[in-house]
Design brief:
- The chain is α/β, with parallel strands linked by helices.
- 38% of the residues lie in helices and 21% in strands.
- The chain contains 15 helices and 15 strands.
- The strands form 2 sheets. A 9-stranded mixed sheet has the order 14-13-12-11-7-10-9-8-15. Strands 3-2-1-4-5-6 form a 6-stranded parallel sheet, with helices on both faces.
- It is globular.
- It starts with a strand and ends with a helix.
Length: 414
């Protein structure tokens, strides 16, 4: 059994990875936790029967101690990751790292170098890569059903309510507090594209902006929804309407107490009760990226918040045919040129992100259990992150970014 430490008992640490451990006690056990929120720390401690002496309010307390477990899960806020993961690797821990790995390109590359130097197992929580949907697509590509990849269209449909929750009102609303949207949300997609294409990036161009969720859009609304908003009856973002009917993963950041009464109280002057047109958000609400890879491969990626559904759709065009997929549809369609269309059913899996949450946990556990080399896992994650950074540079500086020159500018030759 793997003995692990959890840094950060938030939505992912407590509700996803912690829950996996409770369901699979023979695979992994959390023996320590660190989180500044007393209620969440105590709840995690009680769930996992952790000795009170191993429940910490500050992650740095754990990182000052000699190694006392096999692995460390780093599920803290984005800007904390780099210091914590570098210390964990030096101490001898295998690391499960929530995405994004870090919020600066040079720090991504520092983490990669140190992981290789210490030969630690490390998996980055790019959960989509480990979902049955994308694993099936990868298998079909490797089997040659559509020949060599020529072009890809990939769309991340964020969902407008999800966007308003996480990227207008939530912890990832402001690039100075967390990281740019293309990194915080779409490094998943950059990782998937790097994984599926498996070719070196050459250049990146990107466009996007914050168009709708800003003060100029509405002039007659209060700062908080519960301060008598005149548009509450027909506004889809009216906070009580959203959160009293929301799933737990959305209610949990609002209040540790998930009762309707506690939610309403938290919405009065809390961040999740703010009008979506009166927040301090600055991240984009839509962004497109065009990428060129070696072998003549071109990719168009669109992240848009303005969708009803939360899903990802992909269309891959090859020298021998086409492939289409939608994460909300259990069927992947493949049509070789001059042949009948094939329908490939994706295995259904429990858990979030189309089974990717469980898939990434199994990947990490098996890497430790069977001594699998995770170097390639990390290398792909690094490429995905650097593509996100290059995309943001292109968007802000209105220029095409040479990928290799961008990497060398931040860290030297790889």
């Amino acid at each position: 059994m793997i003995r692990a430490i959890m840094l950060g008992a938030g939505n992912r640490g407590l509700g996803t990875y912690g829950m996996y451990a409770l369901k699979h006690p023979g695979d992994i056990q959390f023996i320590a936790v660190a989180d500044p929120d007393d209620e969440r720390r105590h709840y995690f401690q009680e769930q996992h029967k952790i000795d009170p002496s191993l429940a910490f309010s500050d992650a740095q307390e754990v990182l000052k101690m000699p190694k006392f477990a096999d692995a460390m899960f780093i599920c803290t806020q984005d800007k904390m990751h780099v210091d914590q993961v570098l210390k964990a690797l030096r101490l001898g821990y295998h690391v499960f790292l929530e995405k994004p790995m870090a919020i600066k390109p040079k720090d991504i590359l520092r983490i990669e170098r140190q992981q290789k130097m210490y030969h630690r197992k490390m998996v980055v929580a790019h959960v989509l890569r480990y979902s049955p949907f994308f694993l099936t697509i990868k298998r079909l590509l490797d089997e040659g059903h559509i020949g060599d990849i020529i072009a890809v269209n990939h769309v991340e449909n964020v969902g407008v309510i999800h966007h308003s929750h996480s990227y207008v009102r939530g912890n990832w609303r402001n690039s100075q507090l967390a990281s740019p949207m293309i990194l915080a949300k779409s490094c998943h997609d950059m990782d998937i594209l790097a994984y599926l294409i498996d070719s070196k990036p050459l250049s990146v161009a990107s466009f996007g902006e914050l168009t709708h969720f800003k003060k100029e859009t509405k002039t007659n609304v209060p700062d908080y929804c519960l301060d008598g908003c005149p548009e509450q009856d027909h506004c889809p973002f009216y906070a009580p309407k959203v959160y009293l009917n929301a799933p737990d993963w959305m209610r949990f950041p609002v209040s540790n107490d998930l009762s309707d009464e506690a939610i309403l109280e938290a919405l009065k002057k809390g961040p999740y009760g703010r009008c979506v047109y009166r927040s301090d958000n600055d991240v984009v609400d839509h962004q497109s990226v065009t990428m060129q890879f070696e072998k003549g491969i071109t990719v168009n990626f669109l992240m848009t918040s303005f969708t009803n559904e939360i899903t990802r759709t992909i269309h891959i065009m090859g020298t021998k045919g086409e492939l289409w997929g939608d994460m909300n549809d259990p069927i992947i369609r493949v049509k070789p040129f001059g042949q009948n269309e094939l329908s490939i059913k994706v295995d259904q899996a429990e858990g979030g992100h189309g089974g990717g949450d469980e898939g990434v946990m199994k990947r990490f556990i098996n890497a430790l259990k069977y001594d699998w080399d995770t170097t390639k896992d990390v290398e792909i994650a690094v490429v995905g992150h650097l593509l996100a950074f290059a995309s943001e540079t292109s968007r802000l500086e209105h220029r095409i970014v040479d990928y290799q020159a961008f990497v060398e500018e931040h860290y030297g030759k790889r």
